[in-house]
Write a structure and sequence with these properties.
Blueprint lengths: L1 E2 L5 E3 L14 E2 L5 E4 L7 E4 L8 E2 L8 E7 L4 E6 L6 E8 L2 E11 L6 E2 L1 E4 L23 E7 L2 E6 L4 E6 L4 E7 L13 E6 L5 E5 L6 E4 L4
């Protein structure tokens, strides 16, 4: 659905069809939209929001239970979350930036702590068959249900709804930490639970939508 600055609908049309259980997805710097299938063996589809070009399946980006994507124009990669209880955090390194038809799928490798350093490792078989992508690399860090994802200023933020956390990945120095954990809120009831999609503002504030809890949109400012 297209609308103008006053909110008046100006057009409506379909940009993707015949997919399964599509979820958050994400934009690219070249003005396409990545639509992600949240199902076992799911694909990423690259779509044209103007509807002039047919959607294209992007199997090189991996087949798994996709949730969200975020583009990093500095490192020229696309980050991806996975929505299962023992999920991983991925990045896709295109052979040519701006062309998602080929490239390398990698997974974040780190310890079990909630903060520390990490590395990237190639996923040997991105089609996830017969072994799921998350089970192909020893030491791949596990997350409890990857959800929304946002990139800005050398940092990727993503949420995990299974444990009500917001993770902060510093891509300049290859470290990660928690930006929010509802179990660490004291005293009182955590203001944010059922964490789901996330986006950011130019001021550095994060807006996190709840899928559960009070069904609110909560804000995390730059000093956490």
């Amino acid at each position: 659905v297209r609308f103008n600055s006053s909110g008046t609908v100006t057009d409506a049309y379909r940009i993707l069809a015949d997919t399964r259980q599509n979820c958050a997805g994400g934009a690219t710097p070249w003005n396409t939209w990545l639509s992600c299938e949240e199902t076992s063996g799911g694909f990423v589809y690259e779509t044209d929001p103007w509807g002039a070009t047919a959607a294209i399946q992007r199997p090189a980006m991996g087949r798994f239970t996709h949730e969200a994507t975020a583009a990093d124009p500095v490192r020229q990669v696309i980050y991806l979350t996975e929505d299962v209880s023992d999920s991983c955090f991925y990045r896709f390194v295109p052979t040519t930036w701006g062309d998602l038809s080929s490239g390398t799928l990698q997974v974040l490798v780190a310890g079990s702590a909630t903060s520390g350093s990490f590395t990237w490792a190639d996923v040997p078989d991105p089609d996830g068959s017969p072994t799921a992508t998350r089970n192909q690399v020893s030491g791949a860090k596990r997350f409890n249900g990857g959800e929304g994802l946002h990139y800005a200023n050398d940092t990727a933020w993503f949420t995990t709804k299974g444990d009500n956390r917001v993770w902060q990945v510093n891509l300049a120095n290859d470290t990660y930490e928690l930006a929010y954990d509802d179990s660490l809120v004291d005293p009182g009831t955590p203001p944010l639970s059922g964490v789901d999609n996330v986006t950011g503002s130019t001021s550095g504030d994060l807006y996190v939508a709840e899928d559960g809890g009070d069904m609110q949109i909560c804000l995390i400012n730059p000093d956490d």
